[in-house]
Amino acid sequence: MSLVISADSHIIEALDLWTKVLAAKYGERLPQLVSECNGEPGTYFFTGLEYVNLGAVEPRDTKDSTAATSGMSDALVDKVNRSNTDPAIRLELMQLDGIAAEVINPTIALLTMRAPDPRMVFDCCRLYNDWIADYCSADPKRLLGSALIPTDEVERAIGELRRIAKKGLCNAIVYTDVKPNMKPYRDRHYDRFWAAAVDLDIPIQLHVIPGQTRDPYTLQTPAERELIPKQYLAIMSEPSPILANEFVFGGIFDRHPKLQVILGEREISWFPYFLFRLRQLEGGLGESLRMWKIKKPVDEYMRTQVWHGFTDDQFFDLAYKVVGSDRIMWGSDFPHPRNTFPNSRKIIDRVLKNVPPKVKADVAGRNAARLFKIDPPKSKTEAAVPVKLRARPTRTKKATRR
Question: What is the pTM assigned to this prediction?
Answer without folding.
Answer: 0.91
